[in-house]
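User: My collaborator sent over this chain with a note saying "see what the structure looks like." That's all I know about it. Can you take a look?
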Amino acid sequence: MHTAAQFCKLLVNNLEKLDIHIIENKRIYFLSDLHLGAPNYINSLAREKKIIQFFDLIKQDAQAVFLVGDTFDFWFEYQQVITKGYVRFFAKLMELKESGIDIHIFVGNHDLWLKDYLQQEIGAIIHHQKIEIQNNKKHFLVAHGDGLGPGDLKYKILKKIFTNPICQWLFRWLHPDIGIKIAQLWSRHSFTDPSVEVFHGEDKEWLIQYCKRKLTEKHFDYFIMGHRHLPMEIILQNNSKYINLGDWIVNNSYAVFDGNEMKLNKFDDRQ
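Assistant: Without extra context I'll predict from the sequence alone. Here is the result:
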């Protein structure tokens, strides 16, 4: 039992499971697709400051913060070098962690080369796969969402290439000035403006199809995902709900669980 976080971490059938006991008057926050670094330094810095405002707002009642993938628009950890920037963001995560708030960071499709730097320096818990969260009242499945469900074959092939140890070893031999520049250009090429994202209908949304299939195997009260850059709440069968966390480029959206129910909200930094 992790005394500060009040959770127990298990690995069952290669699926990570967290048992969480929520302390009275505390909440768990979920947000995803911050895409720090995109599309340029000025816009990213403004977004970084907005996220820090949000963290300041929630730090009094937060028990844990889950960053559910694509925290960075690109990330690679050389043995002695990391991507520069995000100093304010890292300092705030450290502040939250040292105050007793647990920080969970999921690997997404843009930062899938995230290793153990943030674990070592901040004490963040890094998740490379989807996880189950069991509360005494509710049962969640949490994942970034990339590569889940039918379709998206092109990305699934690319992910196998990018996560191949040999490919990562070859990339590591590039000078960081060259390797990071190439990766940033690739990341920006694949970047989709969240303002043009639209809902395609339940029968065409891959993640909703994935959730419905999972419900035939096991009941979950909530499916918490990102990746789509489109905040949404969809009621599935048997009182199950799919929640997409949206993004922080356009929507500034997040979900919060108070021990009884999950709500999808938006942060207004003008307040």
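A starting point for your reply to your collaborator: The chain has one domain: 7-266.
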